[in-house]
Specification:
mainly alpha; 11 helices
């Protein structure tokens, strides 16, 4: 039964990344805690593997459609390296229940961003590099602390601050998520022994398969319906985390 739920949640994570380029780890972390019974530290560390792998597959699939800018994605990730380091340090000192409660609050914000905020098309203005650095650092902190890629922040940042077209921003966010996840995983070396390899492998394979299958058809589906559906799931999971972690 654990394997079945692991496959199910992994598939949902991969589907989220493949279809809208964001929101994967927002579901991966609570899924690992609830389904596999992992601690917050183990779940956020394992999440970097799952989300990074699924995002990489999404990048490879989207390259064929011309909706990925590798250079911009890697640049955005590089600008957030300091933030990732800071987030990793915070993960070592913040109590686990506080981490999960904070994560739940973040999920409400992500749910709102995915459901109620439209990504505007870029204007013909000069890129705002200071805001790019701030956004990249914030995403890096979230990746280091919570093990998430931060796609729900990366996509609007690419559009608003770097003037990247929406379709390309979604694909490019997967590049940054891949790089952020890899770096965060490397920094969390002291938690590697907490990762249940077989279970996480099953979770990861399901996420990769879903991302691989669904990435090419993302442009054919109604993005607003997808975002609202996933945001509703995120809010429900956030409520569950709050209820189970507030004494």
């Amino acid at each position: 039964m654990t394997v079945f739920f692991g496959l199910l949640v992994g598939a949902i994570v991969g589907a989220t990344l493949g279809l809208i380029g964001a929101g994967g780890a927002i579901l991966a972390v609570p899924g690992l805690v609830a389904v596999l019974g992992l601690s917050a530290t183990a779940a956020t560390t394992s999440s970097t593997i799952i989300v990074g792998s699924a995002a990489l597959v999404g990048v490879l699939r989207r390259r064929k459609t011309g909706t990925v800018d590798i250079k911009i994605g890697l640049t955005f990730s590089a600008l957030g390296i300091v933030g990732t380091f800071i987030g990793t340090l915070l993960a070592r000192v913040i109590p686990e229940n506080v981490t999960l409660i904070s994560f739940a609050l973040l999920m409400f914000g992500a749910g709102y961003a995915m459901c109620c905020r439209e990504n505007p098309e870029p204007k013909t203005e000069r890129p705002k590099f200071l805001l790019v650095i701030i956004a990249a650092t914030l995403v890096g902190i979230l990746t280091g602390l919570f093990g998430i890629g931060g796609g729900f922040l990366i996509v609007p940042a690419l559009i608003l601050f770097l003037r990247v077209p929406t379709k390309i921003a979604i694909g490019t966010s997967l590049v940054a998520i891949t790089a952020n996840s890899l770096f965060a995983f490397a920094l969390r070396f002291e938690f590697w022994d907490q990762i249940p390899l077989i279970e996480v492998a099953v979770f990861t394979i399901a996420a990769i398969a879903a991302s691989f299958i669904l990435s090419p058809i993302a442009g054919r589906l109604n993005a607003n319906v997808l975002k609202r559906t996933f945001s509703a799931v995120i809010v429900v999971v956030a409520i569950y985390i709050l209820v189970t972690n507030i004494n």
